[in-house]
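*** Residues and shapes ***
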Amino acid sequence: MNTFISDLNWRYATKKYDASRKVSGQDLEILKQAIRFSPSSLGLQPYKVVIIEDQAVREQLAEVSFANKDSIKNASHVFVFANIVDFGKQEDISEFLENISKTRGIPMENLEEMRAKVTSSVHAKETEARNTWTSKQTYIALANLLNAAASLKIDATPMEGFQPEKYDEILGLTQKGLSASVIGVVGYRHEEDKFKDLKKVRKPENELFITL
């Protein structure tokens, strides 16, 4: 079996984490780079990722989560993906273009046509639609985190069951123009997790795929 597919088959949404085991600094850096190199619409990366190790903060977050409270408290790290609210301000676009200019050695004046195209594309959406769009981008980055973790034999669980406004308050995201979108926790499965030995259940190919 292909190694990537084998890794995906190995992983599952871990329910019980071993609080005594922590992801190493080296592996954490790989997970961060996997997120950093995730694809995003126009390459804009309209989000930030908050990595939480502090136990007191995690206890607070667990209290305003609907499920997997123990995972938030016992996993090695909690990743909160937060989309940029009302993305598309002049500074957002300028920051993006300045990064291109610096990375590729292109003078800023040569990027004015790109500025116009990116600005037009982003502002074609109303504010609410734009916030939905930036929130969706975080899920692509989350997927890269899950896949990278599986390749390292690190367990991971994606989570949507939480109160975004409470997360924003606890983490001070609102003041930063951010809003919590989705969570990923990483660590190592506990030997007592009853789900760890269950076979993965997925739709068969003939039910999942439509080839035209």
About this structure: Residues 10 and 112 are 47 Å apart (CA to CA). The chain has one domain: 3-208. The chain has a mean pLDDT of 97. The two ends are 27 Å apart (CA to CA).
